[in-house]
Every structure is written in structure tokens, then in C-alpha cells.
Amino acid sequence: MKHFTKVNILGINFLNITQQTFLNTLEQEINLHHNCFVVTANPEIVLLARKNHRYQQIINHADYVTADGIGIIKGAKILNQPLPERITGYDTMLNLLDFANRNHKKVYFLGAQPAVIKALIPIIQQKYPQLIIAGFHDGYFKDPQPILTEIKAAQPDIVFAALGFPKQEYFINQYREISNSLWMGVGGSFDVLAGKVKRAPQFWIKHHLEWLYRLIQEPSRFKRMLALPKYLILIYREKFARHKKRKA
Ligand code: UDP
User: Fold this and answer.
1) How remote is the CA of residue 215 from the centroid of ligand 1, in Å?
2) CA–CA distance, 145 with 142 (Å, rounded to integer)
3) Banded model confidence at residue 219, pLDDT cuts 50, 70, 90
4) Ligand 1 probe mutation, 141, 163, 215, most atoms within 8 A of CB
5) What percent of the chain stands above pLDDT 90?
6) Residue 54, pLDDT above cutoff 90
7) H or E segment and range at residue 134
8) Are 120 and 127 in contact (CB under 8 A)?
9) Which residues, other chains included, contact 72 with Cβ-Cβ below 8 Å and sequence gap of 6+?
């Protein structure tokens, strides 16, 4: 594991690096067959970790935790500990797929609904023909054993776990020792890559409105989106607490 400076935001330690440096680092980790756990954390993950100490420990014991989403970047700025840029799970996954394709790496795909993972595999084969598919499984299993047996036998270079948080982090934390792979939770990324949900067009991303685009697509996410204002209130509270401490 390489060491970089970190920025603590409400209890989670975020890597203070650019997307390019991060990608280079992960490529090295893969080439060296290091066992590596990557979390791209958004404000929802930060909030859950504040409530759930076990989850917080798991995240902070991951090898690399990056700022997924504008909320983390804004929070860091408000706390006067700026982070250079967002490093999202989806972009990191796409970059790693590209790397895997160029270098004939083996990848295991775990997660999403059965129909989504089934649709995803031919898309991967077509877009990344040199990548080796080590195996795949949907994310709605009761018994993880057959999946673990498959991963252990294949020893993939990368395991993407699209089980949503916190399930994917619990899963990786519990089972990562079975294979010296890069393990990464990618949330709803398989849904996007398989075309089930659309990612916001550049315009929306550029204007920091990706959240609004997602809300329009999936109105059922409304309750989840209340996490953002809640998170910002905590950020400001933290800012004033630090300010008071400095003055005292
Ligand atoms: N999922 C899964 N198993 C579960 C629960 C969820 O595979 O037991 C999948 C779900 O099908 C979806 C992803 O996990 O593909 C979670 O998507 P969401 O958009 O909620 O994740 P986010 O990117 O917001 O963390």
C-alpha cells in the first residue's frame, strides 16, 4: 500500500490525490498482485459510518478511500482542507476496465440484479475484448460460498462488487483474503454500464447537477438524497466546533 496524505472528513480519511495519480497507483498494485481494498466514498457512506462504528472501522481500514461526489469536495473545502478533485467509483471502474483490456487482466464481476449482470457480460466482451472475464454472479445470493470458490480458483486481478453500500464493503472486508486482487465496491455502476440507468450527460456533471439528473430518473431516491443536506449541516457544525476550539 502506498502512503499519501489524507484529509479527515467527519471521521473518514480521504486520500488527498488526483485521479491520475490514483489510477497509476492502482495499476501498480494490480501488477504487483497486492491484496488491495478500494472504497469510493460519498456523503451517504460518511453519514452511515458516523452512526455505525463497525462500518467506519471497515472503511478506514481499506487501503484507499477516495472522494466520490461533489459533496465530499465541497465539505473538504468548507473545512479548509481542500481535495483536488472527485474520484468516482464509476470513472475508476471504467479506467480499470480499460487498463485490464490493454493488459489482458482477469476481472470478476459480482453484483446487480440477475438480468443486469447477464446483460452486462456481452457488453464487457464487446467493449473490452482483451479483458479476461474470470467469472460473474448477480448480487442477490443467500450463500456466498459458490462465489467465493469461484473467485478463489480464478485469482482474478480485479473484483468489482456492485452490491450497493454497506453490503459491498462488508463483503469485501470479510472475504478479501481469498484472492490477492484489487477489490472495489462500485455501487450501481453495473446498472449504468449495462444501460439500465443512464448517467448524467456532461453538462449536468459540469454544473454539479448529477444528483438532480439521477433524481429525475429515479424519483424513489428522494429520501436517500436528504443525506446531502444532513451531511452539509454536520460539516458546518464541525467547522464551527473547530473554530471555537482554535479560539479557546
Ligand atoms: N444490489 C445487489 N445486491 C443487493 C442489493 C443491491 O446486487 O443485495 C445492487 C443493486 O442491484 C444495484 C446496486 O447494488 O445494482 C446498488 O445500486 P445503487 O444505485 O443503490 O448504488 P450507489 O451507486 O448509489 O451506491
Assistant:
1) 16
2) 9
3) confident
4) 163
5) 82
6) yes
7) strand 132-137
8) no
9) 9, 14, 41, 42, 43, 46, 83, 86
CA distances from residue 167 to 45, 58, 141, 162, 195 in whole angstroms, order as listed: 11, 12, 12, 9, 23
pLDDT at site 208: 86
Which set of grid coordinates corresponds to residue 46?
A: 460518511
Ligand 1 pocket by Cβ (under 6 Å):
111-113, 139-140, 162-165, 167, 187-188, 190-191
CB contact at 8 A, 22 and 92: yes
- Residue range 158-184: average pLDDT? 98
Q: Collapsing DSSP states into helix, strand and coil, what is residue 86?
A: coil
pLDDT for 115 beyond 90: yes
The answer to whether 161 and 138 are in contact (CB under 8 A) is no
In this prediction, residue 199 carries a pLDDT of: 84
- Residue 217 has a pLDDT of 85
Strands lying side by side in the sheet with 158-162: 64-67, 36-41, 182-185, 158-162, 106-111, 132-137
Residue 199 C-alpha cell reads as 448517467
CA of 104 to the centre of ligand 1 (A): 28
pLDDT at residue 15 in the model: 97
Virtual torsion, Cα 104, 108, 114, 119, nearest 10 deg: -10
pLDDT of residue 172: 98
Ligand 1: residue whose CA is nearest its atom 19: 188
Dihedral sign computed on CA atoms, order 77, 4, 84, 194? negative
